[in-house]
Amino acid sequence: MTGNPLGLALLAVVVLGGLGLLGWAGYCFARWYRADAETRVSLRQARRMRWGWKRLAPMLGLAVKDATPTVLQQYGPQEQPTKPRVLVPRLRTRADVFGVTVTADALPQVGLSAWQDAGEGLCDAWGMRRIRISQPKPGVIVARGFRREPLEAVIRSPLLGPDGSPVCRPGQFVSTDDVLLGWDEDGTPIVLNLAYSAHALVAGLTRSGKSITVNTLLAYASLMRDVRLIVIDPNLGAVAPWWRTAYKVSDAIHPDEPTEILRWVREEMQRRERLFWSGRTDRITEFSPELPLLLVVIDEVANYTRHPDRKARERFEAELLAIASQGAKFGIRLWLLTQKPSADVLTTAVRTNLSARICHRVDTIEDFLHLFPDGRELDITAADRTMPQGVSIASVGDMHTPVRLRSVYLPTEACWQINDLMCAEGLKVRELPDHVDLDKAA
Ligand SMILES: Nc1ncnc2c1ncn2[C@@H]1O[C@H](COP(=O)(O)OP(=O)(O)OP(=O)(O)O)[C@@H](O)[C@H]1O
User: Fold this and answer.
1) Residue 262's pLDDT band (cuts 50, 70, 90)
2) What sequence ranges are listed for the domain FtsK (predicted)?
């Protein structure tokens, strides 16, 4: 066979085909292996959709008959009339935790409106709860099928493995990496970029999901090698997991200690001002372990801004305003959390500088309007008793209009575990307070 060129060519084709098949099988296995349980269900569903497509498309009027004879039919024997061919749009599928996205070629007479008419049939045949059909560009149809509603699903943070323990390592991220906050109702990921964003305000009634949303931010930030965390929380809830590793922490109820921390931040801003001269710039855009981005998170800020000690309260507010209005260009990011976002909690001067807004369920439309002044024109509101825990109205980054956001689920226990990891790598900054005995608590 070695001397036979045809044999050699055949052997090469078989070997290459075999290798291609092996590569494809490897790719499918890797995709399957890396997927979580929900994505695996979607992957199975996507396979069924592809297999049944040739039969389904003509039934739903998404195929066309082409009577043009092929070259063979044209020049071959002409005894029988040529049978029209059935053209079915080519289908590509992409599975994710919510369902399957189908991309198909539009055919003549089978454009967007034909797909929209077939929407209900597709929904039933593909076993979806909802389907959204769009045409992102001429000739391409996208049908997004939802097995699960993104706003109803509880989706664990990608920082956690299937058993709920962290699958991340300290220093894994940098401030320019996107932080996945959650998904909107169409399953579009909502991300935040600490380096390119500014300050933020998070509001919502108690148990509406503020801490879980901010856990994600704190967890990613603590794993960024060019970010330092400063956490202030009079209720201890948000600060406790980060007590050992954050750069500065406070659980004081009186405003004086937090004011001291904010004063240090403001002095740091003054120190950084010199860099503007040497760098011939008016803002810091690049961060490093030596010049880190400072993320300041203050939970239940109303505790300080409405504290009965008027003088202490005013000192706190003065520092807060200085950081809110000037801090961003010096590499400071301020995140304020409050149950009630009213004017007596945060002055308009502070509030207008908090450009990212996340509003979990609030009591009144006025509370919602404090975050979204044009809220009456929106068709969504957070003053809604049916709004589930973990869902908010959010406007972050360069979003044009606010969206409903389902935050990823990162429970506080997981934050403790991430901090255990950091401590194991020698990143402990301080011991837990004297009165805390973790062994006893366990
Ligand atoms: N994204 C989410 N996915 C699933 N469940 C969530 C989510 N967010 C919140 N929850 C549920 O809601 C509960 C309350 O959330 P969280 O502690 O974040 O509320 P909170 O607004 O911070 O309350 P408080 O102001 O009292 O601290 C959580 O224990 C969890 O069970």
Assistant:
1) very high
2) 187-369
Residue showing tokens 């007479």: 109
412 is in an annotated binding site: no
CA of 345 to the centre of ligand 1 (A): 22
Measured between its terminal Cα atoms, the distance across the chain in Å is: 73
Q: How far apart are CA 424 and CA 257, in angstroms?
A: 29
- The strand order across the sheet containing 91-95 reads 91-95, 99-105, 140-146, 130-137
> How far apart (Å, rounded) are the C-alpha atoms in residues 182 and 107?
35
Distance CA(175)–CA(248), nearest Å, equals 18
Residue minimizing CA distance to atom 11 of ligand 1: 389
Please determine, for the modelled complex, whether the ipTM score is greater than 0.85: yes
pTM of this prediction?
Answer: 0.86
- Does 204 count as an annotated binding residue? yes
Indicate the SS3 state at residue 406: strand
Ligand 1 atom showing the smallest separation from residue 360 Cα = 21
User: In the structure, which protein residues have their CB atom closer than 6 angstroms to any atom of ligand 1?
Assistant: 154, 204, 206-212, 237, 339, 389-390, 407, 409
pLDDT tens per residue, range 92-138: 999 999 999 999 998 888 889 999 999 999 999 999 999 999 999 99
Q: What is the DSSP string of 290-310?
A: SS-EEEEEESSTHHHHT-S-H
